[in-house]
Amino acid sequence: MDHAEMTTHQKAVANMPAIHYLLGMSATTKLLRDRLSATVGNSRVREDEPLAKHCNWRVGGPADIFYKADSATELETGVRLARELNLPFTILGFGANILVSDFGIRGLVILNRSHRIAFLPAAVVEADSGTNLAVLAKEAARQGIGGLEFLVGIPGTVGAAVAVNAGTRTEWISAILDSALVLKSSGETDWLPAEALDFSYRSSRLKESGEVVLAARLKGRPCEPEVAERNMADHLRVRKTQPTGPSTGSVFTNPDGDFAGRLIEAAGLKGFQVGGAQVSEMHANFIMNVGGAKAQDMQRVITHVKMEVEKRFGIRLQEEIRYLGDWQDQQ
Ligand SMILES: Cc1cc2nc3c(=O)[nH]c(=O)nc-3n(C[C@H](O)[C@H](O)[C@H](O)COP(=O)(O)OP(=O)(O)OC[C@H]3O[C@@H](n4cnc5c(N)ncnc54)[C@H](O)[C@@H]3O)c2cc1C
Question: Which whole number is the average pLDDT over 246-264?
């Protein structure tokens, strides 16, 4: 595309590396980079890491400072450093429920790949917050523990699943959560019982509090491995009706007594497209990146869908996905 044809937004995105270069990184951000490098190793800390490659939607600009935490200790270290320096930090799991702005995320972004799993007495499973939900369900099944099978089809990590109370239509992680190890804003870490986390449909107090889940204990039950395997296969079979490709699953939560997908379809919005973002023809609550989408395309489709559904049915849909990064210039 010719530069003259670009919108202001597109020009800003195209010029971002230049702006970054001219302004340079703030002294505090450099300090964070250096202190983090000294702790986890120079080669693991990256500047201007493109986040599109770490998010399911494959959109989004760069992170100022980025590293992958391979353990709960490494996750905690990054958060503590950022807090000490008063810099913002963001935890990414699989990026399966987020929309990162084209302008990226300021401060520190930690890709959480902590992955320790321990089996405790009474069929309790303890897992680091970066543990893949599918791996967890399968490992539990192998150990003769059931009750976690529904997690097999939810793309994501344990910590995010707890923060957003992930689940299916009939099962939620909050219902099997015994407790979560939380790094509080005060700097303390504490095993908090599920009741302390104010769970509701796709929500918990952790969604807004800035607290970080380091690990979780889930209550399973004894189960023959073959039975758990069969249950997981059933969960995965149901998923076959979902679109495949870059998406975040359901973009909107279901309003009371109805389904966001049904409303969007009834508003005639299947196939509605802006740039590379398209309302799925297969499942209207999914928005797909059909190629080359920008975060702004996604946001425009979301805004249009909300407006049309409200106009037609008087129902204001709420996003299930979280917006991360700089959105002021994109609204
Ligand atoms: C094809 C598809 C199907 C899906 N189906 C379902 C479904 O059936 N049910 C369902 O609930 N969801 C579903 N989702 C959405 C998604 O899988 C869940 O929301 C999942 O919990 C996201 O996990 P994540 O690790 O990718 O989180 P991310 O998208 O990386 O992060 C989500 C939010 O959690 C925060 N976060 C991440 N880690 C932590 C932590 N350790 N402590 C505190 N906050 C944290 C992030 O900062 C962000 O705000 C689906 C998504 C896709 C792509």
Answer: 96
172-221 pLDDT, tens digit each? 999 999 999 999 999 999 999 999 999 999 999 998 899 999 999 999 99
- Please report the domains of the chain, with CATH numbers, ordered by start residue: 3-112 (3.30.43.10), 117-239 (3.30.465.10), 260-330 (3.90.78.10)
The pLDDT tens digits for 282-314 are: 999 999 999 999 999 999 999 999 999 999 999
Whose C-alpha lies nearest to ligand 1, atom 53?
Answer: 248
Model confidence at 327, pLDDT cuts 50, 70, 90, reads confident
Contact criterion met (CB below 8 Å) for 160 and 212 = no
Answer yes or no: is the C-beta of 97 below 6 A from any ligand 1 atom: yes
Distance between CA atoms of residues 15 and 25, nearest Å: 16
Query: What's the Cα-to-Cα distance from 34 to each of 23, 30, 31, 40, 112, rounded to whole Å?
Result: 19, 6, 5, 10, 20
248 in contact with ligand 1, CB cutoff 6 A? yes
Please tell me whether the overall predicted TM-score, pTM, comes out greater than 0.70 for this model.
yes
Interval between CA 47 and ligand 1 midpoint (Å): 24
Among 66, 114, 162, 164, residue to substitute to test ligand 1 (most atoms within 8 Å of Cβ): 164
